[in-house]
Every structure is written in C-alpha cells, then in structure tokens.
C-alpha cells in the first residue's frame, strides 16, 4: 500500500522559534496533501489543503501567515509553524491523495504517522 | 452546517461485541469511513461504505443507512489491542472528509 512519512516525529522548541514539518509520499505521487491538527481527546481538524505547484487552501480560522505550507513537488509538502507559541503544541498529521477520488474515494487519503510538537 | 455525532467513550469486555454508532448531516455524500487511531498515532483505515448495508471484514463490520444518515461499526471477539479511538468520517460533495470527534473504546479483561 501507499506509504506517507513525516519528519520529525517529535519536536520540542522554544516559544518564538519556527518549526518545519515534512510530509513525503514514498511510493506514489500525491497531487494533493492535507494538513491536520489534533489536540488531546479531540478529533482531527483540517488546517489546509495543499496542491502541488499552487497555493494552499486554508480552513476558516487558520492563519496562513503563521502556518506556511509549501507543496513544491508531487512527493513533498512542508508545514512551517512560524513564531511558535505554547498554544501551537499539538499533534500534526498529514495525509496524501493519489488523485483518484472520484473513482476510488476509499483509497484517496493515506496518513502519515504524525508529528508531535511541544512549544515551551 | 455539517455535523458528525458519535459517542465520546464506550467500555466493553474482552471477547464481547461492541457497536459504535455514528450519525451525520453533511452537504452531499460520497461515502463514510471508519478509522482506528491508537493514542499518539495517526489514523488507520478500517472501512468504507457508500451503499446501504453491511460490509464485513473479519472481526469488524460496518453498516450504513443513507436515508437515516446513520452508520455503525461492529467489533466482535474484542481483544485488548482493540482499545483505541474510532473515528467516523464522511466524504462530502467536494470529496472532503468531515470528521467526527471519535469514540474512545476501552476494553476491560
């Protein structure tokens, strides 16, 4: 099956610094990648949808200048949390789509293992 | 608005059967997903229903009634490793996943 990796899996940083999280599709080309955030005991919250070669589409309430997304290739998307603060501490998960949503919607999203961010 | 409802937490006994319900109201429908998520890990795909009826896959089964906006995940012969959160998600008319808050399932010996 399709594999999605994330790096790093864990990051601890000081308040005010920036953190970059990478999401890679290892054995398929991902035309679209999704970035989610999950706070403890809560469900996944979609932050943004990233299409290769174009600007990301952010969900309402998500600051695009704070959460910078770059989808430069069909196998890599990055999320940069700029000037991180303790309230940004969360579990960040990416997922990648193969682009066959209309014909095989059940196979469209493959999740990475997640990145746990702790801002001190 | 779009809404997915599922119980917050359920408790069951090892070896027993448990049913986790999910009701939804979304703009369009392109299928309903169940995912399993262990603590600190990303979700893993369990099932997908787009037509009414029951889909069986080993110890897990998923049911869908589109007219009622209702689904359930049935877990049989519960094992301790089944302790996890179970997420219900609906794919709307834009092929975007709308997620429920998840049901934390606690298995007791």
Give a topology summary.
The complex is a heterodimer of chains A (120) and B (109).
Chain A: E1 4-7, E2 10-13, E3 19-25, E4 32-38, E5 45-51, E6 57-58, E7 67-73, E8 76-81, E9 90-97, E10 109-111, E11 115-119
Parallel strand pairs in A: 2-11
Antiparallel strand pairs in A: 1-3, 3-8, 4-5, 4-9, 5-6, 7-8, 9-10, 9-11
Chain B: E1 3-5, E2 9-13, E3 18-25, E4 32-37, E5 44-49, E6 53-57, E7 60-65, E8 70-75, E9 84-91, E10 97-99, E11 103-108
Parallel strand pairs in B: 2-11
Antiparallel strand pairs in B: 1-3, 3-8, 4-5, 4-9, 6-7, 7-8, 9-10, 9-11
What this model shows, in words?
The complex is a heterodimer of chains A (120) and B (109). Chain A is mainly β. Chain A is built from no helices and eleven strands. In chain A, a hairpin with a 5-residue loop joins strand 5 and strand 6. The interface between A and B is medium-sized, with 20 and 21 residues.
Summarize the structure in short.
Chain A is mainly β and 120 residues long. In chain A, 0% of the residues lie in helices and 50% in strands.
């Amino acid at each position: 099956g399709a594999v999605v990796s994330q790096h790093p899996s864990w990051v601890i940083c000081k308040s005010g610094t920036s953190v970059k999280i990478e999401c890679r599709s290892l054995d398929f080309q991902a035309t679209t990648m999704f970035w989610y955030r999950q706070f403890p005991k809560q469900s996944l919250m979609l932050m943004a949808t990233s299409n290769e070669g174009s600007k990301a589409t952010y969900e309402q309430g998500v600051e695009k200048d704070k959460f910078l997304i770059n989808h430069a290739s069909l196998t890599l998307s990055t999320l940069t949390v700029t000037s991180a603060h303790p309230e940004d501490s969360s579990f960040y998960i990416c997922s990648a789509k193969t682009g066959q949503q209309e014909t095989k919607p059940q196979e469209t999203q493959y999740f990475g293992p997640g990145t746990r961010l702790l801002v001190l | 608005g779009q809404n997915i409802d599922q119980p917050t937490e359920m408790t069951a006994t090892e070896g027993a059967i448990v049913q986790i319900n999910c009701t939804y109201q979304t703009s369009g429908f392109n299928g309903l997903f169940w995912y399993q998520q262990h603590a600190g890990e990303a979700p893993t795909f369990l099932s997908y229903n787009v037509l009414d009826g029951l889909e069986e896959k080993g110890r897990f089964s998923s049911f869908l009634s589109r007219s009622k906006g209702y689904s359930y995940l049935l877990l049989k012969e519960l094992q301790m490793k089944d302790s996890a959160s179970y997420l219900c998600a609906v794919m709307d008319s834009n092929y975007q996943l709308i997620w429920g808050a998840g049901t934390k399932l606690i298995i007791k010996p």
